[in-house]
Amino acid sequence: MSDDWTFFPHVTFFPHVMTMHDLQAMREAVRLAEGIRPRADPAETELLAWIVFRYYRRGLTDPERLASVAVFLSSSRVMKRQRAHTEAGVVMHLDLRSHT
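Structure (tokenized):
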């Protein structure tokens, strides 16, 4: 079990339990991110959702901030490289823990 949640003592959040409120906040963040950066294809929406989930789980729960982070990271070279490898059929695990 990970102790990631201990880095955010001001947030009463256990990263392995999701409620309807959590899902609504993440859905809102993805919707806002799509509004900032119109999607070109379903793969981009999936990437935005993956980034939102990853950072929500780590304690960033504000939908507007999540949307901004998701748009910023999805436009970075690292994410574009990961997407190119994924589309080419190369399986690659990207660990963003060192980038937060």
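Residues 1-6 have pLDDT under 50 and may be disordered. The radius of gyration is 14 Å.
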